[in-house]
What we know:
With 84 residues, the chain is of the alpha+beta class. The protein has a domain at 1-34 and 51-70. Helix content is 25%, strand content 44%. The protein has two helices and four strands, in the order βαββαβ. The longest helix has 12 residues, at 52-63.
Amino acid sequence: MDDTLHIASLVVLARPELFDAVKANLRLLDDLELHHESPAGKLVVVLEAGDERRILQRIEQINAIPGVLNAALIYHELLDGERP
Length: 84
């Protein structure tokens, strides 16, 4: 069993008039946390996944949310060992 944990940080840019709807849709996704936000429509999002493919799928999913202008990967880290 692979105990590698991928942690990724994204900046999500959303249309300000759809910002609340974007945040609500993001909260529906598993293994995703919203951290900081700006009224201009910027969000810092952290993802956790078992592999890189899942991170890339989640970024595509976020980019497909109505009102999202862009989701950009800022940071990616691999943690080896037992998951908490």
